[in-house]
Design a protein that fits this description.
By secondary structure, this protein is α/β, with parallel strands linked by helices. The chain has 3 domains: 13-194, 3-Layer(aba) Sandwich (Rossmann fold); 201-311 and 454-490 and 502-543, N-(1-d-carboxylethyl)-l-norvaline Dehydrogenase, domain 2, CATH 1.10.1040; 327-445, Transcription Regulator spoIIAA (2-Layer Sandwich), CATH 3.30.750. The chain is 43% helix and 15% strand. It has helices at residues 3-10, 24-35, 47-66, 72-81, 105-118, 134-138, 172-184, 200-203, 205-216, 222-231, 239-246, 248-261, 272-280, 345-353, 363-368, 389-395, 426-437, 454-470, 476-487, 493-500, 502-516, 525-533, and strands at residues 16-20, 39-43, 82-85, 96-99, 124-127, 147-152, 161-166, 188-193, 293-294, 300-301, 327-335, 357-358, 369-376, 379-383, 401-404, 415-420, 442-445. Helix 2 crosses helix 3, helix 11 (239-246) crosses helix 12 and helix 18 packs across helix 21 (502-516). The structure holds 1,4-dihydronicotinamide adenine dinucleotide (NAI). 1,4-dihydronicotinamide adenine dinucleotide binds next to helix 2 and helix 5.
Amino acid sequence: MTLSKALIAKFDSTSVVAVIGAGAMGAGIAQITAQSGHRVLLFDQNEAAIFKAKESVALQLHKRVLKGKLSQENYDLCLENIIPTYSMDELASADLVIEAIIESLEVKQSLFLELESICKETCIFTSNTSSISITSIASKLSRPERFLGLHFFNPAPVMPLVEVISGLASDQVLAKVLYKACMRWGKKPVYAKSSPGFIVNRVARPFYAEALRILDEQGASISQIDELMRECGHFKMGPFELMDLIGHDVNYAVTESVFRAYYQDPKFKPSLSQKSLLEAGFLGRKTGRGFYQYNSNGEKYLQNNITDLPIDRNWTESKAPDGLIKQIQVTSKQENQPSQMSPTKGLIERFLSNNFYFDNETNQDLEQQIITIFTFGEAHIGLTNGLTATERAKEEKLNNLVLFDLAFDYSSITKLAISASDNCSSQALDDAFTLFDLIGITLIKLDDIPGLVLMRTLAMLTNEAVETRLQGVATGEDIDKAMCAGVNYPQGPIAWGQRVGLTLIHQVLTNLQLSYGEDRYRPSSLLRRLSVSGKKIVNELAQ
Ligand code: NAI
């Protein structure tokens, strides 16, 4: 029997796990594996760290006992399973090693070289590295096939995702063994090929990068972008709130490492504003100041924050005149692909349920077509396609053009970003504010930036996810699963992009590329192909 076949038969909850590195990640990984019944040998070069890690696990588990989520018996068993280990030789009985020491290629390589002479032939070696190539760590080993990545997310006991990463030499059967083990530990594993950023740390880059870019161009303020991404994007946190939580040192380092690893691809270019926070020592929540400031209770506020902009214009009260006619004219429209739902369906339904009617359009027309521009009073209004309102007004020979942003679900939002063409009259703007106010949506007027906030971010996320799939790093399903389980996205970026329409996503990217004249926004060749064929690569309903 080959080594890998023997392991499939053998690896179960009676197998011994060695966790090396008892820091933030190691402690969490020890907790997960001990809770699943494994004997866990917890080793660290610093003995105090082992003691501290066990104490922190005890504290976390005790909280679960108090909440009634864990029995006292299981608490005792789990803590008994974590065995402080003070010498590397004591790791000889391990069936699986999970390494979570400092992020250094040389240190990790020399650790595994030493382990090769201590551990059994059948022991599987894994690293929790977030940025080092699995292929490179394995390259010094005499048996690189038994080495894989097992990338947990912080805090490990809470975040469900684990990326099971194969290097060039990794045995695929062992990847399956680890996948099954993660399932038994109650995790949501995905397979990935070793490449810079793996799945999540690569595909998530535009979530931060587009927000930073918009801020750098003074297109919208920090608090506006965060609010719009939460309200319209259904993200749990806005990008600036999340960067402050992660820490700018960590977030910037990941961006820089991905940028370097992809040979300075402009898609991953780090931001100078974030770098200046780093230089100032404003690392986020942990130092009390990042993009926001935090008081001693952890509450955030913007104070003396020169990077935040005054709100350009907000609607405070309805100015709808008495006897207003609730008529909307369809100014331009296009046929939809047969299986594609119009991205603005929820908005149109909201107008209809508030007694607006669309001139000369039946309800069936409205369902089957995409209304690209509609007119109310003096305002021509449309969903952004990645051009600025000023460029599009010229292209479509329309004055007074107002563009609105994408929403995850137009039926529930209370706020929405808009931009207006440079020649837009104040009456047209008033008309747009009135129209949306009458269906319960407060508009937030931003500068005339291309693709507004959510649409351009989603277009870039979908593009990166599709490109990651094109390069065979992971399947489309696993990429979407990783982004939901690893960073809490409301829907996977491929399924979400498909729902909005890959033709529109492609158009947004092409127009952003035109507006900025930059390679950063180039669409993936696979996205381009799908936008032409209408083919979908993930099942949206499976999400
Ligand atoms: P940490 O700094 O909290 O803990 C590292 C521990 O490793 C320390 O206790 C240190 O004493 C020990 N250590 C260092 N060199 C050692 C050696 N040669 N032998 C034995 N022990 C050694 O670090 P953290 O945050 O737990 O990260 C560990 C690994 O997990 C890194 O590779 C990191 O990139 C990765 N990771 C970190 C995440 C995070 O959010 N912190 C998320 C996912 C992965």
